[in-house]
């Protein structure tokens, strides 16, 4: 049987490790091509989408928020003041370090725990499993994927292996 811990904490941590690789390759490519790193950091896939920096911030917010809520912990707050690749790397590392503090037993039974989120000014309640699988994970993957796609869109040679953390 797969546990709530197994489908959350290690998955978030591994995907963030891969995201750090994407950021490393994007920064190196900007240097190699003599492109101001802010071009990538402020880059968007579409004018109505958030830039790379915000995509990383939101991905890490979901990664730290989901297990915290499921374990009944207070969600750590970050300032959202990252302005460089080094800042984003530090945020990803800090989130992975935080994830490493969770123990499987903290999430035992959390599939039935009620999680309350404020969405659009309204309190929404979810059972833990529905929250993890239908809210937290899809949002996390959306922002991680978009954070990968932005540098790719700007010509950084990233492949699927890099997205998966093997590049």
Structure explained in plain terms:
A two-stranded antiparallel sheet has the order 1-2. It has one domain: dinb family like domain (Four Helix Bundle (Hemerythrin (Met), subunit A), Up-down Bundle). Strand 1 and strand 2 form a beta hairpin. It is mainly alpha-helical and 167 residues long. It has six helices and two strands, in the order ααααββαα.
As for the number of domains, it is 1
**N-to-C series of helices and strands:** HHHHEEHH
| The top level CATH class name | Mainly Alpha
Query: What fraction, in percent, of the residue positions are helical?
Result: 55-70%
Q: What is the mean pLDDT?
A: 96
Assign the structural class, choosing from mainly alpha, mainly beta, alpha/beta, alpha+beta, or little secondary structure: mainly alpha
Q: What is the CATH fold-level name? A: Four Helix Bundle (Hemerythrin (Met), subunit A)
CATH architectural arrangement? Up-down Bundle
| Shape, principal axes of CA atoms | elongated
Q: Can you tell me the residue ranges where pLDDT is under 50 for at least 5 consecutive residues?
A: none
**N→C terminal distance:** 31 Å
Give the full name of the CATH homologous superfamily: dinb family like domain
Strand content: 5-15%
- Which strands sit side by side, in order, in the main sheet? 1-2
Number of helices: 6
Number of beta-strand segments: 2
Biggest β-sheet strands, sense, barrel: 2 strands, antiparallel
Rounded Rg: 16 Å
């Amino acid at each position: 049987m797969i546990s709530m811990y197994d489908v959350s904490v290690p998955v978030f941590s591994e995907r963030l490790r891969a995201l750090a690789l994407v950021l490393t390759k994007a920064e190196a490519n900007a240097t190699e091509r003599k492109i101001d790193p802010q071009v990538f950091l402020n880059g968007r896939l579409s004018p109505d989408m958030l830039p790379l920096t915000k995509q990383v911030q939101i991905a890490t917010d979901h990664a730290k928020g989901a297990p915290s809520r499921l374990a009944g912990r207070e969600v750590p707050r970050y300032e959202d003041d990252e302005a460089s690749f080094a800042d984003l790397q530090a945020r990803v590392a800090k989130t992975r370090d935080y994830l490493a503090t969770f123990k499987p037993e903290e999430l035992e039974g959390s599939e039935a725990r009620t999680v309350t989120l404020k969405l659009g000014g309204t309190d929404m309640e979810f059972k833990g499993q529905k929250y993890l699988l239908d809210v937290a994970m899809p949002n996390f993957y959306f922002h991680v994927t978009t954070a990968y796609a932005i540098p790719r869109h700007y010509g950084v040679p990233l492949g699927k292996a890099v997205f998966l953390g093997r590049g």
